[in-house]
């Protein structure tokens, strides 16, 4: 290689190395979260401050079209054949699907997110939104067969599993101390906005 060619190649190699390192940094960057679970610390104007369950302070701009849903406790007996439910499950010791929580959707929300997918509530957890086609009562809970468009799953719901449902909510319920799940998106300036918040009523922590 001539000296002239070597001098020409050096800046190209340097640029390539910088590009490669930048790409690696982008590839390793943590994904932007889509929801925050935690406790409201303050609401001021159109700003919601939430202390996440892992201890971070998360500041959210409240979108003008904010939707608020209340989460309230119901009983295991309220899960009926034909109910459209969401079930967060983790693998059980016997290889089955043990419910961490179940939420029963009102009829107006039937079909919401139908299917089964990985979920971020606990390690190895999944979320299945489906219709209950069979419910078998056992000594310590119910075994539900839930069916969705592309499959089905058997879910064990113990007597201790939290069961909740959605009720109409209002922005006035977003106050200090309330337990929430706020769905969020990142704005171009790097800040975060929420247009949907699930809030636990009567001190309830939304279990999903």
TrEMBL record:
<protein>
    <recommendedName>
        <fullName>DUF5666 domain-containing protein</fullName>
    </recommendedName>
</protein>
<feature type="signal peptide">
    <location>
        <begin position="1"/>
        <end position="27"/>
    </location>
</feature>
<keyword id="KW-0732">Signal</keyword>
């Amino acid at each position: 290689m001539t000296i002239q060619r070597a001098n020409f190649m050096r800046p190209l190699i340097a640029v390539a190395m910088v590009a490669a390192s930048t790409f690696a940094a982008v590839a390793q960057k943590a994904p932007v979260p889509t929801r925050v679970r935690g406790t409201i610390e303050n609401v001021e104007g159109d700003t919601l401050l939430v202390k996440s369950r892992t201890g971070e302070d998360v500041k959210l701009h409240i979108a003008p079209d904010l939707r608020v849903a209340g989460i309230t406790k119901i009983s295991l007996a309220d899960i009926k054949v034909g109910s459209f439910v969401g079930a967060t499950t983790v693998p059980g010791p016997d290889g089955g699907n043990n419910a961490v929580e179940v939420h029963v959707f009102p009829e107006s929300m039937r079909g919401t997110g139908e299917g089964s997918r990985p979920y971020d509530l606990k390690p190895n957890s999944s979320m299945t939104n489906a219709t209950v086609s069979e419910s078998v009562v056992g000594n310590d809970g119910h075994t539900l067969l839930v069916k969705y468009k592309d499959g089905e799953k058997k879910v064990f719901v113990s007597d201790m599993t939290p069961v909740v449902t959605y009720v109409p909510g209002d922005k006035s319920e977003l106050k200090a101390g309330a337990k929430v799940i706020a769905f969020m998106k990142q704005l171009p300036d790097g800040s975060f906005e929420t247009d949907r918040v699930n809030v636990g009523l009567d001190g309830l922590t939304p279990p999903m």
